[in-house]
Amino acid sequence: MTTSTPANPIEFYDIATRPPAEKTCCSPNPWKARFALNFKAMPFTTNWVQMPDITKVRKGLNVPPVRQFADGTDFYTLPIIHDPNTGALVGDSFDIAVYLQKTYPDAGAGDLFPAQALGDWVLAKEHSILVPLTEARPGGWPDYAQFNVNVDAAFTLHVGLTVQGFPFDPASEEASKAEFVRRAGVKRFEDFTLEGEARQKVKDSFKEMLGGLAVLFKKDPSGPFLLGQRASYADMMVGAWLRMFHGTLEASEFDEITSWHDGVFRQLHDALDAYAKA
């Protein structure tokens, strides 16, 4: 274990979007890793991977998948980090945060996992989700691991709001859309279109779902983080999903959504700009 900032930059693998990718990146799990890298003041370089190439790249690095679809097939996704200072390859956003905290505990802004109560907010009921979620592998922080699962489930249930505005890279757009269609089991990409009354229904559900989460963010009125002025990896879990919605929705709709619940999610989104370097 080392406590200092590494001498050599970490290699970070993210999903390529419309150029310039560093301005349009919006995949939530890579964003969790990026926030953690910046919070810990890690020097890093980004390898942008086209969506159809993710499986090939992950297999080429010999990083096994950590998630499976309901039928048992492997789900190959990003992020991945390679730390040349230790030789470590880590291929899950939560595991990356755990690795950074355990390997570089005193680097950057300090502790990614300060003690806090995160168990007060859970989903109201079970839902069917097509894309497999990260399992709760605690790595020493079980409350954070479960909170990560709950956050992912809440946002994934409403991710349909973001699909039609996803900033695909034109170089791989058709193949990427075909993969979206395959995963969701629909006939064509246009089936993802969500407008009018149907869109409003999803937004109403989203607002209700986030109500309990907003209560957590209001416990410390000094805000904008769950622990007031102190950021933690739990804030980054939520902030990463907000980055996806910011990158895929019309500005007016993002403003509407982040105005809910006294604007706590807009405050969080803006405050995390401090750790948003691509």
UniProtKB/TrEMBL annotation:
It comes from Staphylotrichum longicolle. Residues 182-275 form the Glutathione S-transferase UstS-like C-terminal domain. Residues 27-102 form the GST N-terminal domain. It comes from the Eukaryota. The lineage of its organism: Eukaryota, Fungi, Dikarya, Ascomycota, Pezizomycotina. This is GST N-terminal domain-containing protein. Pfam families: GST_C_7, GST_N_2.
